[in-house]
Amino acid sequence: MKRSESVSVKIVIILSMVAALSFSACGQSRNANQSSLNMNTISKPENPYYSHTDTTKLNLSDAEWKKILPKELYEVSRHAATEQPFTGKYWNSDVRGTYYCAACGNLLFRSDAKFASTCGWPSFFEQANKNSTVYRRDTSLGMERTEVLCARCGGHLGHIFDDGPPPTGKRYCMNSIALDFVPDSK
Ligand code: FE
After folding, report:
1. Residuewise pLDDT in 10s, the chain (186 residues)
2. Domain residue spans in the chain?
3. Hey, is 125 helix, strand or coil?
4. Which CATH class is domain 42-183?
5. 135 alpha carbon to ligand 1 midpoint, in Å?
6. Which has the closest alpha carbon to 180: 85, 82, 77?
7. Which one of 41, 125, 126, 186 has the lowest number of neighbouring Cβ atoms within 10 Å?
8. What's the CA-to-centroid distance between 57 and ligand 1, angstroms?
9. If we measure between CA atoms, which residue out of 87, 40, 48, 52 comes closest to residue 65?
10. What positions carry a catalytic annotation?
């Protein structure tokens, strides 16, 4: 092989290696984007109605909910059970992010509206938007309270009280188990 041919072969080999490295880097960057996207959504294969984007109202029977929700969530969401205070995942969390309905994925609260409450349940002074929650009078347990329900699936979330901080003076007192939390991307 002549010297010029040998130099050409070397150049071709070097160019091939550079190209291979470039493709590999693109692949890694695409995977990194994919994983950061995945961090922002929750998938529940056992619950086909769960979505962070579909706002269609749900009107499922109790039997259908029982089939697709974990037992403890089913009891809170569909039968207004209350988790024990200071036992839930979010009552003392101050991580920035978004809270969704654990039964249907509906957007409920932003962490900006969460405040440190001494009641033992995650507490917010306002909902994420006007389509997040609806309200119902609740006279159970001999008390006069206002129940908070998910506006999309009608699931029980907790109660709302008038002893919250400014600017609203409201306290959405929620069950952790009725919430899914997605932290903000860094
Ligand atoms: Fe819901």
Report:
1. 445 555 454 544 444 443 333 333 333 333 333 333 345 789 899 999 999 999 999 999 999 999 999 999 999 999 999 999 999 999 999 999 999 999 999 999 999 999 998 899 999 999 999 989 999 999 999 999 999 999 999 999 999 999 999 999 999 999 999 999 999 987
2. 3-34, 42-183
3. coil
4. mainly beta
5. 13
6. 77
7. 186
8. 9
9. 48
10. 173
Question: Alpha carbon of 126 to those of 34, 164, 169: distances in Å?
Answer: 32, 9, 9
Contact, 155 vs 104, CB < 8 A? yes
| CA–CA distance, 21 with 17 (Å, rounded to integer) | 6
* Residue 120 phi, psi dihedral angles, 5° rounding: 95, 5
How far is the centre of ligand 1, averaged over its atoms, from the C-alpha of 96 (Å)? 21
Calculated CA dihedral for residues 80, 83, 84, 86, nearest 10 degrees: -130
Tokens 């962070």 found at: 52
The CA-based angle 95-100-103, given to 5 degrees, is 135
Phi, psi dihedrals of residue 128, rounded to the nearest 5°: -65, -45
Element containing residue 85 per DSSP (H, E):
none
